[in-house]
Amino acid sequence: MTKEIENYVALGQVQDFIKGLTRGQATKETVDTRDAYGRVAAVNVASPTDVPDRPRSHMDGYALMASDLRGASSRSPRSLRLKERKVSSTSVGSMRSGETVWVATGEYLPSGADSVTPVEEARRDGQKVVFKIERKRGDYCYEIGSDVVKGYQALIAGHTIRAQDIGMLILLGISSVEVCSRPRVALMATGNELTSSMEGNDRSKVRESHLPIFENLIRENGGEPVIIGIIPDDVKRIASAIDRGLRTSELVLTLGGTSLGERDLVEQALRRVDRRSRIFHGIRMDRGRVSGVAEVNGRLVLMLPGPVQAAMNAFVLIGIPSIWWLSGRKAAVPGVFATLVEDWEARKRFESFTKVVYVRLVRGRQGFEAHPVLKDTESMSVLTDSNGYVVVPERTTNLQAGTQVMVRLLSGFSYARGRFLDEG
């Protein structure tokens, strides 16, 4: 049983459906600031104070009042009495006109001081310090709020917290931060032929190699994978597994068991779980047109095809946006412009669909180059030979060598553990 081309649902319509179901649904939790790395800020965080909240020295030297050195020169030096600094838990000390206090880099200036003279520009003479250079108010010191002013937005809701953001929060005295919870994503693969065994004795079985790909990509992109495992090609058992996933997770992702004919087991299972399920099945996406999206009991189910390239296409085009919206992130995969080095043409039957072209991104003499990786939909090496992908819109049927394309870079696929690109 086939489906007419015009009856497939446009990718944009499916994405709008997903956005309406997931956006704004992220739950919140509070974590220790030191544990917030990589999490998504759930609320705006404003600085409760100025930084510094009192003037601080950025040189080793002498704190003083600039007015005391007015007219100072090598011919007319000024001498100030060196006052011993007394610092307590509640005070940084004070000084008056005619006095100076030794300060180290980063220390607060004593009350009354408004500038600093570096140690190399002064000469100590017993209990006095001799100065031959005038000073202006604010010289060699960080004035109040010079780094951060009170009310500064240290975090914006939706921002992924970086290492330097944690440093800022700690500097501001913010010990905990409200973040979006990581959405739980239930993962299952369907197929009588699949096995999790690494033994190769049973030739009727195929190692299930796709779940680990998506498990790691989900984790890398802000989700918490919940592994349901391999489910036989049985509608009742698939329905039970989906129901279990819906009860434990915010999103359910199925691999295989989806087609547009009699082997469409997952859609049958979804109807069994809830007859009122809203289902979009058959998406204008090549490869991956038999993918589907469903709302079941208020939660989202994504039906990914079995072939690995089709499954990956569906994951990057509808899976990643789903996870990111559920985790409070903006669904915009970063990318870089590169020059396509070979001609590419869409498959004739599906040239009006949204296409995904996997590429090997390398550094050329004139910038990045994108080398298309074109293999069969069942080929795992189409993914392992790639480190980026190009999304080709519906109306574009070919790309000429020399064209500038936007290569999308997905964490866990394009780079991992901080290594951005293969330098080779």
Using only C-alpha atoms, the radius of gyration works out to 31 Å
Low-confidence runs (pLDDT<50, min 5 residues)?
A: none
CATH fold name of the largest domain, please? Molybdenum Cofactor Biosythetic Enzyme, Chain A
The CATH homologous superfamily name of the largest domain equals MoaB/Mog-like domain
Number of domains: 4
Oligomeric organization of the protein chains: single chain
DSSP summary, beta strand count? 28
The largest sheet is:
6 strands, mixed
Provide the spatial order of strands within the biggest beta sheet: 7-4-6-5-9-8
CATH architecture of the largest domain: 3-Layer(aba) Sandwich
Number of helices: 7
Spatial shape: elongated
Structural class comes to alpha/beta
Mean pLDDT, all residues:
91
Which CATH class of the largest domain is shown? Answer: Alpha Beta
Distance between the termini: 46 Å
Strand content: 25-35%
Q: Fraction of residues in helices?
A: 10-25%
Overview in brief:
The protein is built from 7 helices and 28 strands. The protein is of the alpha/beta class.
Model description:
The protein has 424 residues and is an alpha/beta fold. It folds into 4 domains: 5-27 and 182-326, 3-Layer(aba) Sandwich (Molybdenum Cofactor Biosythetic Enzyme, Chain A); 29-50 and 148-180, Molybdopterin biosynthesis moea protein, domain 2 (Alpha-Beta Complex); 56-142, Molybdopterin biosynthesis moeA protein, domain 3 (Beta Complex); 335-408, Beta-clip (Beta Barrel), CATH 2.40.340.10. It is built from 7 helices and 28 strands. Helix 1 (11-22) packs parallel to helix 6 (308-326). The two termini are 46 Å apart.
